[in-house]
Design brief:
Helix content is 45%, strand content 0%. The chain has 65 residues and is mostly helical. The N and C termini lie far apart (35 Å).
């Protein structure tokens, strides 16, 4: 289980670095400030589907709420 624990710690560290970077830029870390979630499949990019983290604003302050 040591390998899985290290992998989980690494992923957490990378996510925390992303959050700090996005805070400096003022952008939502979930959608990179685009207002829509980033997904692999094109059919998910509907105009009525907003990022659940920031409610579609793309702003870091709204993500923090």
């Amino acid at each position: 289980m040591g390998v899985l624990s290290k992998l989980s710690d690494w992923a957490d560290g990378m996510y925390q670095k992303k959050v700090v970077k996005m805070e400096k830029l003022g952008k939502c870390p979930d959608c990179n400030g685009m207002g829509i979630p980033i997904m692999s499949y094109e059919h998910y990019y509907g105009s009525d589907y907003h990022c659940p983290g920031c409610n579609g604003s793309g702003l870091f302050e709204d993500w923090m709420k």
